[in-house]
Design a protein that fits this description.
42% helix; globular
Length: 155
């Protein structure tokens, strides 16, 4: 399987084994549209594969600017946002997502290896949920369904 990458220039510089992972997961079997922002390709691949196998449609971006651009160009049901993104850090992306009138109100799950103080700050800035790394794919999937269900999503 492959993942749709919004940042094509970044994707072209990926190692060959990661480039072959760049196609949209089967949208016919997917119901929940997820934007997954993570700069670590191996971690992104593992999480996206897991989510895709469970019926999520996943778009992947590897930096903050690409994340903000994707949020402006397509509606998502939920965003998974790493705080340590290059280009524009996750806190700035979170701020933009909550303040920019061009970006629809979308649940945001922050997934980070940063200190707990950053997690608390992310919650104050409008993150719907914060998960500290490391965490299992099962936990991520459960939280995604929880935050979207709390917002009234129905398949």
């Amino acid at each position: 399987r492959e993942i749709r990458a919004f940042d094509e220039a970044w994707a072209e510089n990926m190692p060959a084994e990661d480039r072959q992972f760049r196609v949209l997961l089967d949208p016919a079997s997917s119901r929940l549209r997820v934007l997954y922002a993570e700069d670590d390709p191996s971690l992104a691949r593992a999480r996206i594969e897991y989510l895709g196998e469970r019926g999520f449609e996943v778009d992947w971006v590897a930096d903050g600017r690409a994340c903000a651009a994707a949020l402006r160009s397509r509606d998502y049901d939920v965003v998974v946002l790493d705080l340590g993104l290059p280009g524009m850090d996750g806190m700035k992306v979170l701020h933009v997502a909550r303040m920019d009138p061009e970006i629809p109100a979308t649940p945001i799950v922050v997934l980070t290896g940063a200190e707990e103080s950053y997690a608390a700050r992310a919650e104050r800035m409008g993150a719907d949920r914060v998960l500290l790394k490391p965490c299992r794919g099962r936990q991520v999937a459960r939280v995604l369904w929880d935050v979207v269900g709390a917002r009234g999503f129905s398949a």
